[in-house]
Write a structure and sequence with these properties.
Blueprint: E1 4-11, E2 14-20, E3 24-29, E4 35-41, E5 46-47, H1 66-69, E6 74-77, E7 84-86, E8 89-91, E9 103-109, E10 112-120, E11 126-135, E12 140-149, E13 155-157, E14 160-165, E15 171-174, E16 179-185, E17 196-198, E18 201-203, E19 211-213, E20 224-230, E21 237-242, E22 247-252, E23 260-267, E24 274-281, H2 288-293, E25 298-300, E26 305-316, E27 324-327, E28 330-333
Antiparallel strand pairs: 1-2, 2-3, 3-4, 4-5, 6-14, 7-8, 9-10, 10-11, 11-12, 12-26, 13-25, 14-24, 15-21, 16-17, 16-20, 18-19, 20-23, 21-22, 22-26, 23-24, 27-28
């Protein structure tokens, strides 16, 4: 089949758009902050995104606690991760875009298909555009972003792409980093907050060697969770692989735009959930004023735009990822 868009669709009475080809199916809910509900690997018949078993997608009021409304999937976090302020006004936890309705258009051309969604900040005078494309039957979702400052003043911001992946104890995480900074931890086995370690050797006093391989996903029975920053990405990609079935998904992005990544590991210790979030970020930490204080927030001048592209690549035949190469308009996962 050629790529196509299905527009007469809904989930729980909320409109949805489906972008699909022979390899992938992507379900987008524009009214829910451009929320991506599904990213399905058709060959494996598996939604690669985690779905919250206790929270269905639903409309949230502006300023709501993201965690209490989160249905899983993929959201865009802007202009801050943690609660902050901008020009003297409060910004909510996990930013503004996830809880405001976006507009959407869709179409097809020459065997390709696309969905373009646009969200507008409430406190932050910004326009956020995201165009998702499938080319033919490639197992690659291409995402083109444009972020524009609509203000007459400079706009400081943080932006993180927040896909949450469904995992098992057979999954492996690959991050091209040398050093990790512990940002959040449920206890000693997830590291002490504000300490660093050499990836992937996570210090763990309960392990026979004094450390464990953090690339290996723990079972939900571990009862732990942690959030770690890859502060020195050596290349612009992240990957998670099911080593049992030798299939996985990799994200490829510009390291100049996203120089850091956040690894959110939930192994049963947070609300009983089991998932992993691999998130490219424009800066760290997630609180805008803290990032500004350390000169790690990005700034758009009045009328200025930031454009970038991100690819989500589904692959098979691998138990780990060591590199992602791009030749012309194609990707090679190794």
């Amino acid at each position: 089949m050629t790529a196509r868009v299905l527009e007469d669709w809904s989930v729980g009475g909320i409109p949805a758009l489906i972008l699909e080809n022979a390899a992938l199916r992507v379900t987008v809910m524009p009214e829910l902050g451009g929320h991506v509900l599904e990213f399905v690997d058709k060959a494996a018949d598996r939604n690669l995104l985690w779905s919250n078993p206790r929270t269905r997608p639903r409309r949230a009021p502006y300023g709501a606690n993201f965690d209490d409304w989160w249905s899983g999937g993929w959201d865009e976090i802007f202009p801050t991760g943690d609660r902050a302020s901008l020009h003297g006004e409060k910004l909510p936890y996990m930013g503004e875009l996830w809880s405001v309705p976006w507009t959407a258009t869709a179409g097809t051309t020459s065997g390709d298909a696309w969905i373009e969604t646009t969200g507008l900040g409430t406190v932050a005078p910004a326009r956020f555009e995201r165009k998702m494309e499938l080319h033919g039957d490639e197992p690659v979702l291409r995402v083109r972003y444009r972020l524009t400052n609509l203000d007459v003043r400079p706009l400081p911001f943080l932006w993180g792409i927040h896909p949450c992946f469904a995992v098992t104890a057979a999954h492996r995480i690959d991050v091209p980093a040398n050093q990790m900074l512990v940002g959040i931890s449920s206890g000693p086995a997830m590291g002490a907050v504000d300490t660093t370690y050499t990836w992937p050797n996570q210090p763990d006093s309960a392990a026979p060697t004094g450390s464990r391989d953090a690339r290996r996903v723990l079972p939900a029975s571990a009862g732990m969770f942690g959030g770690h920053w890859a502060t020195d990405l050596q290349a612009g990609w992240l990957a998670v692989t099911d080593t049992e079935f030798r299939r996985g998904v990799a994200m490829a992005f510009s390291r100049e735009v996203f120089p850091q990544a956040w690894l959110w590991q939930v192994y049963g210790g947070w609300r009983g959930h089991h998932h992993v979030c691999l998130e490219p970020w424009t800066g760290y930490p997630m609180q805008l004023q803290e990032a500004e204080a350390h000169d790690r927030a990005r700034v758009l001048q009045p009328g200025e735009s930031l454009t970038t592209e991100v690819a989500f690549i589904v692959f098979d035949g691998l138990a780990e990822v060591t590199s992602i190469d791009r030749e012309a308009d194609r990707f090679g996962v190794r």
